[in-house]
Design goal:
Layout: E1 12-15, H1 27-39, E2 43-46, H2 61-73, E3 79-80, E4 105-108, H3 112-123, E5 127-129, H4 143-152, E6 159-163, E7 167-168, E8 186-187, E9 191-192, E10 198-208, H5 209-212, H6 223-230, E11 236-241, H7 247-259, E12 266-272, H8 285-296, E13 300-304, E14 315-317, E15 320-326, E16 329-335
Length: 337
């Protein structure tokens, strides 16, 4: 049975950097985000790792794991939101005490999805794929991003609905942020392979495919064991997003996941918008999606609000998801059961 963390009326956020921290010249971004979060009524506890960054990581793997372990075990902390993702979170997994994690929300994306998926697969504790802390530094959040609070406040047994965004951000412009950080200019349109309406349901699992693919074949990526222990006989509805892979790299990763059994009893796959998906020798991203739908005989949905082309919904690993896509619009209902 999946365990869903529950929040109190007043919650404390722990900020640690199991992947990348912030170099000194970017400390102001984190300070701005902490101030905005505190103005909303949260207490914030920051660890040492968030203020350092060198050699593509905030600190060595053991220190990162120890700080995370303390926050996961602490009765003071209700939610853990790292500042952002990074590159080498995978180094910390073998040092994290998965047996003593208290059910509490961990929220983030990018390299953080390595941790999120590993925790849910190993422990059956639901985790939250969505905004990172630095992106909450605006005067307010857009409607899609702001849903992280409503989603995380959903009680066990309850449901929450999120709708596709109206517009998305085509390019990052860090020097000219809007009042809600992102510059949302392009009309959002969720797509399906045959341009037909799609409905699918199942237990949500996923993250950034660039990094979670490296869990395949490790003790932290045993999807079959997770199914048997926590969701026997239930299908999985995958959500994936591509940060930097070409079409051929993405295809290789998807084939590896398929051969490892990750897509057994799969009801559908949803792909986030991506600034990557570089075409290789006339091999288009739509070719990847069409081939996958044909060989797995499941619906493929793409350009959803997930990942590095914001804004993004909050997806709960382990929740029961029902997705409905038609006329370029999408609706996701998540039930905590």
């Amino acid at each position: 049975m999946i365990r869903f963390p529950e929040l109190n009326e007043k919650n404390t956020i722990g900020v640690t950097a199991p992947s990348s921290g912030l170099p000194e010249d970017l400390h102001h971004l984190l300070k701005e985000a902490v101030t905005k979060i505190e103005e909303k009524g949260y207490e914030v506890i920051t660890g040492d790792t968030v203020w350092t960054q060198d050699k593509a990581k905030s600190s060595d793997a053991i220190k990162r794991a120890e700080e995370l372990d303390k926050m996961l075990a602490s009765d003071e902390i209700d939610i853990i939101i790292p500042p952002w993702g990074g590159e080498l979170l995978v180094e910390t997994l073998e040092h994290i005490d998965m047996n003593n994690i208290k059910p509490k929300w961990i929220l983030g994306y990018s390299d953080l999805s390595t941790l999120l998926l590993a925790v849910t697969l190993k422990t059956g504790i639901a985790t939250a794929h969505g905004t990172n802390l630095v992106d909450l530094r605006g005067e307010y959040s857009d409607e899609t991003t702001a849903m992280w609070e409503k989603v995380l406040n959903t009680k066990s047994g309850g449901s929450v609905i999120q709708n596709s965004s109206n517009k998305y951000q085509k390019e990052w412009d860090h020097n000219n942020p809007s009042e809600y950080v992102f510059n949302l200019t392009e009309p959002t349109e969720w797509q399906t392979v045959n341009n037909e309406p799609v409905q699918a349901s199942g237990r949500l699992l996923g993250g950034c495919i660039d990094v979670i693919r490296h869990l395949v074949g490790t003790p932290y990526g045993d999807v079959a064991d997770f199914r048997n222990k926590y969701i026997p006989d239930e299908p999985v509805l995958w959500y994936l997003e591509n940060f930097d892979l070409s079409t051929t790299e993405l295809r290789r990763s998807l084939v590896q996941m398929k051969l490892a059994g990750w897509f057994e009893n799969c009801s559908g796959i949803m792909f986030g918008r991506s600034a990557a998906n570089q075409t290789v020798d006339n091999y288009l991203i739509t070719d990847v999606y069409e081939e996958l739908e044909k060989e797995l005989n499941i619906p493929i949905i793409y350009d959803i609000d997930c990942g590095h082309v914001p804004p993004q919904m909050t997806f709960i690993n382990g929740a029961h998801g029902e997705v409905d896509v038609s006329n370029g619009k999408g609706k996701l209902r998540q039930t905590f059961k």
